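Q: Protein A?
A:
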Amino acid sequence: MSTDDKKTGRARGEEWWTTKIIEMKPGMIRLRGYAIEELIGRVSFPAMIWLMLRGELPSEEQADLLGIALSAAVDHGPQAPSIAIARMAMTCGVGINSAMASAVNVLGDVHGGAGEQALAFFGDIAAAMDAGHALEAAAAARLDRFFAEAEGYVPGLGHRFHPVDPRAPRLLAVTRDFAGRGVVPGRFADIAEAVEAGVERRKGKKIPLNIDGATAVIYGELGFPPPLTRGLFVLSRSVGILAHAWEQSQQGERNKGPLPREWLWAYAGEPARDLPKAEDE
């Protein structure tokens, strides 16, 4: 029998949800050991995200870079499924929280999860470099394995709407600036550029870094593990989801579907047919 199994009563209850994140009693709230009243007004929202996820406060410059990445991915318009879903949900009479939840629930591997995939991909290259391989060789080996095992797009590259994602070059330049000041190593920026160059050599054309790849670079530089990249994207895109849900709620439309009502879907089923008559008809 374990020690936990032997505990009963209040001791068992208090340890049921053991956490290192928050301590709370009547009149007292501490986050990672810091009194909330000392954090309020002195710690920015990006710094609070860092503290909650990592357990320690970041430097001001680390928090600034995290905030830059979060700000870059807040919205991509109503053509993005998550935004469209939030707007449609609001026309159905649900609360703004339900609209946001509906939108967040579709941020999966295809829509919203590519940043996690990109950072995992870049992390494989970083691990090979740690094992003594040069950057170009490590990137080439990872790309060889990818194209041998998978079909589709290298995570973090290309965009179905933008020939060049306008956010990515700026984010990479900002990362280079922070690396030049010693805030981050600049290693993941190098890796992303090596991947981009490696794909261009194989494809014969440049497939530029996208928002997922660029933010993955920043989150990698700041030391976040790949799974948190998806959660950070959710935090970021929730801003746009909230803005669109609120805007839609002010427009007074009801039951708004994905297409104008005068446009119907393409039907590809059986032509019109009659139900066979029963024998007694």
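Q: Protein B?
A:
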Amino acid sequence: METVLGKWTAVIADDEPLLREELTLMLQQAWPELSIVAYAKNGREAVKLFEQYQPQLCFLDVHMPGLNGIEAARIIGNRAHLVFVTAFDHYALDAFAQGAHDYLVKPVVFTRLAETVTRLKERLSRSQDLPRIDDLLDLLAKAKDGKSPSKGAPQFLRWIRVNIGQTLRMIAVEDIDFFLADDKYVVITWRDEHGKVAEALIRTPLRELLPQLNPTFFSQVHRSTVVNMSAISHVIRGDNETASIHFKGHDKVAPVSRNYLHLFRQM
């Protein structure tokens, strides 16, 4: 059912303001008739705004603090067309293989969004029944926990979003040298496309990041530090069964506590 203004309506839910703004700008180009009636920064707000505005569409970020996009979708259910915005890799995207629901992969590109808009317009024009979503949400929940819906094997974090000024960057995890907990934030140190060392703050706690990192490459070496073992140049032993890690190509140093010194016994 269309609004009295003759427009389809939507709610956008994402905890990153810049991503909400970028998606809005692209939707304005791809679908000028669509009216964005509200923005939410988490799943709880998304559900509240959905109940208030009753839009025909919801764009939901899968990863949001508190109530995430999957949990919000369970509450909204089949009362709206849902488009999931996700940073999952192709294994997790197996959950969408049947094509009954739409998704966008971060960073969102205009051509992919335009394809989604075309499908949504077709479904809305036919006023077809909304597809069941319970099975999809179960698969997405498994993917979010690091399990491939098709293979059951862990799928580790591949990209991390960071804001640098007004710019959103997607950092490949394999390029990160180490993570350092700093009060309420985590500092990541990585090599940019020119090989230069860069730093940024992210809000995800270290205890939540660690299970998402591939243990083949990343190891915790201190209660506040996780390092990419492939980035290590050498390790210098210190007093009181501690050590310091030195990295290839720069002078940053990471501490090793006695509880993790065994990782470097053979070095």
